[in-house]
Amino acid sequence: MSVACGMECVVMLGCMRWVWRRCTYIGADDSATWTSATPVEFDPVPRISRLILAVYEPDLHHPNFIPTVGFRPNPDWVVKRVTYEQTHGHAPPYLIYVDHDHKELVLAIRGLNLVKESDYKLLLDNKLGMQMFDGGYVHHGLLKSAIWLLNEEGETLKRLWLENGSNYDMVFAGHSLGSGVAALLTVIVVNHRNRLGGIPRSKVRCYALAPARCMSLNLAVKYADVIYSVVLQDDFLPRTATPLEDIFKSIFCLPCLLFLVCLRDTFIPEGRKLRDPRRLYAPGRMYHIVERKFCRCGRYPPEVRTAIPVEGRFEHIVLSCNATSDHGIIWIEREADKALQYWTLFKCQLNSNPTHVK
């Protein structure tokens, strides 16, 4: 009897520990020790977000999602738009855009479409440790999509880069599913720069918004100089340690799945996770947009933190009503733009009255 009571106490204490940790853990805790990003390094993010939004637009002359103020893509600078019918399920829709104002060649890829079977096939085409690449592990389906995309558009990108004097930067960008394809495409290009006319590594960049876990930790750190991942507060996808296929098999019961993942990950030691070389992570340097505080309502002026983390790279899902909404590209664009506006306002106040601005 006493043994049974002791076991009950242990179970109750374990459950109380889990509840306490989960109820008090917030998205801002993931980046609490990171340094603040600078406006200069974060400046391209709202612009790149709007180029990704352009993939969703049926008519760029009359956009539905892109804000009317600030940067707007010039429809005349769109070189190519590719739909699901043209990719035949090998990749999500994308566009190629030549930004002459910023001297960039941008290939922007849209995120997951919940009604397209081909998108699910890309995510389901993977098993733990299935695909080795460059001394690490990557997502098999996303790598196949990236290879197809390079074979399909490599000559076009090479031609555009050479036609513009070999001076423009090559930018690959994507959201959600597209972020994984863009990140792995960047890794391939960096390792085979002759495919794009010998472009220097310093001119290749990738912006992965709401990134999918697509590469092992050693690769995520190795390519941190060319891949920049942007996460908005509580976004569930960069934190989901379970295989991506499990998420989308249970997409209509996502809260239940996330709860079970939280329960499991709470009791897995951090060291055990890091020792598994097959485990996939969000790629590159991380930028975390934090705009909500613990036990406070509403949104605050966004703070952008950055690091190249090894331990604590978004390991735990946050039990938050915003875990799915923070995944949306529209919210990422809004909060990224708001962060830059706040930086600009703060700088103006500092210049006008430096003794009163803290």
Automatic annotation (TrEMBL):
Top-rank lineage group of the source organism: Eukaryota
Give a GO biological-process term: lipid catabolic process
The record's listing under Gene3D superfamilies reads: alpha/beta hydrolase
Q: Does the keyword Endoplasmic reticulum apply?
A: no
Please give one Gene Ontology molecular function term for this protein. Answer: hydrolase activity
Ranges for domain Mono-/di-acylglycerol lipase N-terminal: 7-68
- Limits of the Fungal lipase-type domain: 106-242
Q: Which UniProt keywords apply?
A: Hydrolase
Locate the transmembrane regions by residue number.
Answer: none
Name the UniProt record assigns to this protein: Fungal lipase-like domain-containing protein
